Please model this.
Amino acid sequence: MAQLARFSISLEQNLLDAFDEWIAREGYPTRSEAVKHLIRGVLVDKEWQGKGSVAGAVLLVYDHHKPDVIGKLVDIQHDHMDCTICTQHVHLDHDNCLEIITVRGAASRIRQLLTDLRSVKGIKHATLLTTTTGAKLP
Ligand code: NI
Model:
């Protein structure tokens, strides 16, 4: 376990009040835990700007009746084998499907995967959830 360090910060009272309200709303037990969460968020954003391996999920919602939409999505994922791990398919209703593609690899390749998937006609929404592999995050 890493050595614990302490530091103090100065900020405006109304900013601290707003932060404490946010902490309570989000359910963090202490200011320290909330600050750690915020710092790790910044570090994860930085990982996504670098060249190392990152993790995340691509979410797609599409109408499966559109011509060959599923075939095109599968082709694109096969073209990105270096960063696709698995896919979960959920039938939302008679027409709409949700696909969750778990990804791990270079951020640039994952962003290209998202761009390619978005280009398929029939996609209603495509977004990326970014997180970390955890390997380099303290
Ligand atoms: Ni479906």
Observations:
- Strands lie at 53-63, 84-91, 96-106, 123-131.
